[in-house]
Amino acid sequence: MAKNLSGDLSVASANRLTDGVVVFLDDSGEWTQRLERAAVARDKRAGDILLERAKAEAFAVVDPYLVAVSEDDTGVLEPLSLREKIRVSGLTFEAIAADAVRYA
Amino acid sequence: MRCVMPDTHFYRYDDYDRTLVAERVEQFRDQVRRRLSGELTEEQFKPLRLTNGLYLQLHAYMLRIAIPYGTLSSRQLRKLADIARKYDRGYGHFTTRQNLQLNWIKLEDAPDALAALAEVDMHAMQTSGNVIRNVTADHFAGAALDEIEDPRIWCEIVRQWSTLHPEFSFLPRKFKIAITGSPNDRAAVRVHDIGLRLWRNEAGEVGFEVIVGGGLGRTPMIGKTCASSCPRTSCWPISKRRCASTTAMGGATISTRRA
Predict the structure, then answer these.
(1) What is the ipTM of this complex?
(2) What CA–CA distance (Å, rounded) separates B122 from B21?
(3) pLDDT tens string B7-33
């Protein structure tokens, strides 16, 4: 399946102020925990605008920033960096524990 | 980590200690309130939460609780369990430097967790940020067969001296001290900024070997001995100068410089 790995695509992310949960800015200016609902900027200029919007909506979150993502043919988003993949997918020890059980 | 009965607990808070910790909790409660209401920006709030041991990590806040030189009473251990159940996920993580981390605490709950800690003479001050961190000791301190002297007396002196010390509250880098009373280095004093190792000479006099410049992290360093036989009375002046030189050198230690 073809993926857009150009690095031009980005979403705005932050941690929620009250509990630190990872959130993304959606098209309506709300913060959501679901990456698939995130507003996607498709070039640098759109990314700059998205980041400005995120900062303007930052009352309930901590330090918004842009996360580079890829997008496949069906529109599924995935962060490019390992750090952001971990932020999206959750704790790594759960995956490691599952692998340990699988290969025991 | 040692857990001891309350009647043999090493150091008991006096009224001064309790007032200091209680006031700090109320200060932090007000700071959290102002952050949640938007009065404080994250830039303003971050150093305040860090000095109270509250980090923001990938998925959640983390509260690091100080366990000075790794000694806990059973009452304190039960309170830690109670706090973990009430404000976190029912468990915590004991660290190599004898602290306890709660990894899922909510910002608004952090002041209540600190207030609960204060009930058993504990706090989270100086467990993060560029300050003198929790002083650590041999985990067998007070019970080791090879021990020359209980190092926790010295740990407590350092703890009291360094807590909220204005000169060392804004260091260029975090600063770690460990003390052992045994020739066998179970406290890992050689990988601390200052490591103190008690020794006894042939005349039966007790003193310290003073080791400086050690550390772990990205560039691990084995500390160098700067005084191999320092009498107890002059050990601490040397160590204080060591802390001060770190301040003056912008985070570099005398013998090493870490990335």
Answers:
(1) 0.85
(2) 8
(3) 455 678 889 999 999 999 999 999 999
Contact assignment for B106 to A91 by CB distance below 8 Å: no
Mean pLDDT of A85-103: 77
Domain final residue pick, B119, B151, B186:
B119
Chain A nearest-CA distance from B61, in A, is: 6
Domain assignment present for residue B55? The answer is yes
Q: Tell me the per-residue pLDDT of A10-67, one tens digit each, with 9 for 90 and over.
A: 999 999 999 999 999 999 999 999 999 999 999 999 999 999 999 999 999 999 999 9
Cα-Cα-Cα-Cα dihedral of A85, A89, A90, A93, to 10°?
-80
Q: For residues A12 and A39, is the Cβ–Cβ distance under 8 A?
A: yes
Helix (H) / strand (E) element for A68: namely strand A61-72
Closest CA relative to residue B12, chosen from B160, B196, B129? B160
State how many domains chain B has. 2
How many whole angstroms separate alpha carbon B238 and alpha carbon B66?
Answer: 25
Q: Are B133 and B77 in contact (CB under 8 A)?
A: no
Domain carrying residue B112:
2-119
Start-to-end C-alpha separation, chain B: 30
Instruction: Collect all residues from A whose CB is shorter than 8 A from any CB in B.
Output: 15, 17-22, 59, 62-63, 83, 86-87, 90-91
